[in-house]
Write a structure and sequence with these properties.
243 residues, alpha+beta, globular, disordered N terminus
Length: 243
Amino acid sequence: MKKWLWLLVSGLSLVSITGCKDTEDEDTSSGPAKVTIPLMETAISDKNTDTYAMQVKYSVESMNSLGNLLTNFYIGFEGYNWVKNGNAYTWQQTNGTEAIKYVVTDNGATYTTQFFTTGEMGGFFVTNALWFEGTYSKDGKSGNWKIYEFTSATVSFIETTYEWSTNTAGTLSGELKTYDSASDSNPDSYSATTKADKSGTLVFSENAVKLFDAEWATDGSGTLTYYDNNGAVTNTYTWTKNP
């Protein structure tokens, strides 16, 4: 399973674990401002029974996991004892030999969030290791995430990246890439756009080769096209509008 999928689960688990805060942890001082990331939404209905329509819908909307991670991070840690030093806010907690630390830096027009962890990660015990980080606009409309995979207690590489932007017409563009190693120069990637009317496009590439693309209209109808490694069309599927 790709790390970006279970990172959301892990992040939400941390929120639930630390959500039962003691009185001594409570503080009325404000932390960093809450940021909500826009989500990819398609016009394809949950009631659509077409297999290919659902494949496209879930491929696009699964990219929301990383946006949800940031949004839920702010929800989960609102009201906690943030320590402010200059333009940086820090929240941390230790439990035995394990620890987590969030650092949110106010860059003026943007925020940078970094998450550090101490404990078992991928079979290694890491100490104050950077697990994920991202820089994003204060309105949440553009930004990027990087998630790291540990190959030893002291060495890691960027395993997943996600970048998104929103134009003035409300079109959200996002690209998710996953890397197998530090030397992987051809990551797998999902690239999607969703318009304000929920029409959009999706492209999936593996090792820098496009394997399928899709487009759908505001009524939920759409087309999915598969390609071989030479770029020739192998299959095309269409589905009708929402029931």
